[in-house]
């Protein structure tokens, strides 16, 4: 911990650590770009490199005091997702989105639950809670990858809507499984256990929607870009603070903020401004995620952790494939969208901490270790898999000449055949 040896003041230490984080992110992305990997992967690897697992450049106290960055970064990401929840897009792709979301979330949950019970003979309460957590998808890595490669089209619209609604399904599934687990543990069924997290999240969603409409009413074309950005960031932070006070993830509420705003006014300029403003915040967030990854947890999770990691991927892909086939979604959605649903981090880790309180200490600790250790791998491979899905679905613009690691670049369009050359026969002024 080189910075601690300098005996810096707390204020100076924070400033120096932030500078080190951003510089590490920049230099690592120079390397990952040569490997054709998304920037998010570079940010996470930078965090692993300068974090406690390797160089320990950043003191643990500084890492612990930056928890607020996580909530703010997720809020910016969720607000940007709201842009893709326009009513006209949902009306066009609504059946695809709803069916795919239910299938990819619930099939993953079911496959994980059955595997834990049938193969490893683990308690039903443990298997149910782990399965419910498996249904959650982390939107941050996928969305950052989409933004980096400027991917657009129906494939992207459906993917973003599925990622946005995925956490709603995970929340409801976890609440129901938590009630069943408590009943199996002899604590009895409690309606409050099921309804409390759902009602709190709906309250946060309602606040986000109200502030989204207020944002539409407050800012207009007469305001400067700086004023619009300032008000938008203030609204996002209000929602984030409300969720933080209730110990909730700000994802759903900030999605509602962005969705109501875009549907009320159809103005997209503010989203571009917020995206530009949020770039360094998001870089810090992903580097911090890398620094928090405990690589030693990978070995302690054992065979059960490896099985969870693989079975959840299988469940996500199979559920997405089945949902897309049932809803008659485009072939690219059916075949490749499951690759974009692999990442898992923030929401899953939060639910794991809740599950740890419900389960006995031994099984609760095992569940938490499985989720934390698998998140290491999911966040490592997730961005590359998301890019792979975009590449295979042919939604990356032609300007992107290189494919993801291990894949060739997109095929070039054949050139038009040139007219046969006849010397100077048709030169200017020549007679035929």
UniProtKB/TrEMBL annotation:
Residues 23-376 form the Cation/H+ exchanger transmembrane domain. It is a multi-pass membrane protein. It is found in: Membrane. Residues 413-432 have a biased composition (Basic residues). The chain crosses the membrane at residues 12-31, 43-62, 68-85, 97-120, 126-146, 158-186, 198-219, 231-264, 295-315, 335-355. Gene3D superfamilies: 1.20.1530.20. GO terms for biological process: proton transmembrane transport. The keyword Acetylation does not apply. One of its GO terms (molecular function) is antiporter activity. Keywords: Membrane, Transmembrane, Transmembrane helix. InterPro entries: Cation/H_exchanger_TM (IPR006153), Na+/solute_symporter_sf (IPR038770). Residues 402-432 are annotated as: Disordered. It comes from the Bacteria. The keyword Transmembrane applies. Its main location: membrane. GO terms for cellular component: membrane. This is Cation:proton antiporter. It comes from Luoshenia tenuis.
């Amino acid at each position: 911990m080189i910075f601690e040896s300098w005996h810096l003041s707390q204020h100076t230490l924070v400033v120096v650590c932030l500078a080190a984080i951003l510089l590490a992110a920049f230099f690592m992305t120079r390397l990952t770009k040569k490997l054709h990997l998304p920037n998010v992967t570079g940010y996470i690897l930078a965090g692993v490199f300068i974090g406690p697992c390797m160089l320990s450049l950043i003191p643990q106290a500084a890492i612990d005091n930056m928890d607020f960055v996580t909530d703010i970064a997720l809020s910016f990401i969720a607000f940007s997702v709201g842009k893709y929840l326009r009513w006209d897009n949902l009306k066009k792709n609504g059946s695809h989105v709803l069916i795919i979301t239910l299938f990819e979330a619930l099939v993953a949950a079911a496959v994980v639950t059955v595997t834990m019970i049938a193969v490893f003979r683990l308690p039903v309460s443990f298997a149910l809670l782990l399965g419910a957590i498996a249904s959650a998808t982390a939107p941050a890595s996928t969305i950052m990858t989409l933004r980096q490669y400027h991917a657009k089209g129906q494939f992207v619209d459906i993917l973003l809507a599925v990622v946005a609604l995925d956490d709603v399904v995970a929340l409801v599934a976890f609440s129901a499984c938590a009630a069943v687990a408590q009943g199996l543990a002899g604590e009895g069924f409690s309606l409050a256990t099921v309804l409390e997290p759902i009602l709190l999240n709906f309250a946060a969603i309602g606040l986000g929607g109200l502030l989204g409409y207020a944002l539409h009413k407050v800012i207009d074309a007469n305001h400067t870009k700086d004023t619009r950005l300032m008000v938008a960031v203030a609204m996002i932070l209000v929602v984030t603070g409300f969720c933080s006070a209730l110990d909730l993830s700000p994802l759903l509420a900030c999605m509602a903020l962005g969705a109501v705003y875009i549907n009320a006014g159809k103005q997209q300029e503010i989203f571009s401004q917020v995206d530009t403003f949020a770039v360094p915040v998001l870089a810090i967030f992903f580097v911090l995620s890398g620094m928090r990854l405990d690589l030693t947890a990978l070995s302690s999770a054992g065979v059960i952790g490896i099985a969870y990691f693989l079975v959840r991927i299988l469940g996500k892909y199979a559920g997405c494939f089945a949902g897309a086939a049932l809803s008659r979604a485009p072939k690219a959605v059916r075949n490749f969208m499951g690759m974009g649903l692999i990442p898992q981090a923030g929401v899953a880790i939060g639910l794991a901490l809740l599950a740890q309180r419900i389960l006995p200490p031994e099984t609760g600790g095992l569940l938490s270790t499985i989720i934390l250790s698998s998140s290491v791998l999911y966040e490592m491979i997730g961005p590359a898999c998301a890019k792979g899905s975009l590449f295979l679905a042919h939604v990356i613009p032609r300007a992107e000449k290189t494919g993801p690691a291990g894949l060739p670049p997109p095929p070039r369009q054949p050139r038009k055949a040139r007219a046969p050359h006849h010397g100077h026969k048709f030169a200017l002024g020549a007679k035929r």
